[in-house]
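can u do me a favor
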């Protein structure tokens, strides 16, 4: 099977639509389980809690009304008994026993109204033993005078795990005290309705609800998946075209913020790839040109020296040596750029006199003045010390001066200016050449980019200087730039911090 066949294989893994469908189903199943547990399994528990809270509320209201007299008590007992459909009996505790002062039977079947005084007293004693509160639940079939199975209210709450299959009776006995200290006993009785029919109804509803919601989950997952995946699929198709070298492709990610941001990023990447591809082709063409010229000259002079007697002169030999050195400089420059951009060359910072280094560098161009009429001038206000990599900064200076010479105007003059202000020193290299248009300024720092678009051999240097300048200055975290106007020349500049640790030289 060839590479083309392997490239058409589907990638392993789960698709977004499948995962989205899976997550929707999981969420829906969890939701249904929660509904089943709370609506069916725990129905009996919540029902008992509700009844207990109702009886506690009725007791609190009766306790408040006891302080306002018997007339207020009777009204409160009647109102709350009718509202919650419970049976209420209120007793005052006297020396002779329990004296009933209020009585309302609003329940369909009341346990309290079918017990004798001995059983009432037994309930009261149980409440005393339980620190003023006693509750119990028993089947309605239990004889009224038989109180043999006694439970606290806490037992009732936590024992309600079985669905009621028969009618049950909940009894609550509380002891309270009036403002004058008189003890009262409030007995409440409420019927607990069997829940079997209710539970069966809820189970049947739950089955239908589960089927409907699972179907809705599948439908929603398919709709959402299609909506989310569509822009991703389109961008994937566009990316495949980009991989074939079609840099004019446009990515569209309408619908969601994330897909829009991804589309914008991919469009930017496509633009940068197109620019890099163009610059790479120009780099190859320009480097090939600069390699071919010295090689041609070396070959030509070598053939002349071989074939023509008397041409083995020092001048011809020097030409071969010069062209060989130019080849060496070009190769070394390419290696320097690769090493600097790969961070393989470490910075070796040290304090040094930048002004003195500039003076020495400018003096080395005096030979060009005598041979070709080029003049490199230096202006400065005072000596300054900087903390930087001396060798790399010298390379920056030479490359900027070489660039100024290569693009100098008719006056063949390059001015190097040093200015100090606000703790920084700015070095400017000024020429009066053709200048650079505004749209080309961001591109001049790329390797072998040519402003005039017509490749010409540099007077000095290799043509890769500005790329080296950019890399070195960025590694020093130094500000740099160029100010230029077409027809009026260019000013390349960079700034470094002045090192005052050893003082400044006058």
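np, heres the sequence
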């Amino acid at each position: 099977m060839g590479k083309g066949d392997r490239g058409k294989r589907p990638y392993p893994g789960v698709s977004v639509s499948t995962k989205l469908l899976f997550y929707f189903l999981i969420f829906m199943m969890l939701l249904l389980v929660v509904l089943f547990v709370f609506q069916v399994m725990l129905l009996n528990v919540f029902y008992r809690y509700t009844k207990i809270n109702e009886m506690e509320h009725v007791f609190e209201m009766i306790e408040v009304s006891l302080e306002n007299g018997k007339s207020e008590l009777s009204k409160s007992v009647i109102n709350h008994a009718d509202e919650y459909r419970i049976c209420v009996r209120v007793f005052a505790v006297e020396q002779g026993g329990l004296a009933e002062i209020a009585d309302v039977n609003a329940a369909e079947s009341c346990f309290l109204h079918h017990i004798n005084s001995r059983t009432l007293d037994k309930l009261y004693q149980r409440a005393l033993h339980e620190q003023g509160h006693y509750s119990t639940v028993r089947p309605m079939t239990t004889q009224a005078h038989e109180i043999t199975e006694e439970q606290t209210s806490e037992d009732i709450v936590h024992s309600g795990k079985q669905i009621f299959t028969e009618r049950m009776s909940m009894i609550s006995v509380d002891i309270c005290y009036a403002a004058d200290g008189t003890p009262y006993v409030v007995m409440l009785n409420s019927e607990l309705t069997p829940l079997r029919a209710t539970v069966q109804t809820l189970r049947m509803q739950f089955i239908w609800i589960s089927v409907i919601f699972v179907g809705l989950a599948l439908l929603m997952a398919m709709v959402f998946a299609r909506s989310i995946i569509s822009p991703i699929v389109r961008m994937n198709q566009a990316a495949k075209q980009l991989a074939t070298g079609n840099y004019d492709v446009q990515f569209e990610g309408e619908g969601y913020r994330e897909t829009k941001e991804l589309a914008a990023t991919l469009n930017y990447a496509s633009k940068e790839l197109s620019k890099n591809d163009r610059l790479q082709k120009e780099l190859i063409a320009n480097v090939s040109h600069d390699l071919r010229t010295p090689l041609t000259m070396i070959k030509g002079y070598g053939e002349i020296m071989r074939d023509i007697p008397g041409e083995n002169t020092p001048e011809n030999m020097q030409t071969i040596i010069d062209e060989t050195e130019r080849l060496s400089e070009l190769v070394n420059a390419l290696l320097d750029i690769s090493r600097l951009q790969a961070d393989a060359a470490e910075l070796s910072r040290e304090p040094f006199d930048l002004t003195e280094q500039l003076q020495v560098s400018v003096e080395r161009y005096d030979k060009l003045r005598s041979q070709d009429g080029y003049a490199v001038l230096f202006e400065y206000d005072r000596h300054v010390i900087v903390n930087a990599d001396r060798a790399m900064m010298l390379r920056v200076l030479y490359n900027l001066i070489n660039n100024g010479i290569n693009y100098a105007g008719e006056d063949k003059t390059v001015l190097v200016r040093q200015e100090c202000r606000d703790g920084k020193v700015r070095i400017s290299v000024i020429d009066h050449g053709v200048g650079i248009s505004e749209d080309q300024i961001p591109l001049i720092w790329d390797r072998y980019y040519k402003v005039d678009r017509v490749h010409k051999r540099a007077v000095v240097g290799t043509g890769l200087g500005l790329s080296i300048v950019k890399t070195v200055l960025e590694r020093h975290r130094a500000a740099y730039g160029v100010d230029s106007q077409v027809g009026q020349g260019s000013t390349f500049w960079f700034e470094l911090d002045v090192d005052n640790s050893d003082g400044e030289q006058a």
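The chain is about 50% helix and 20% strand. hope that helps!!
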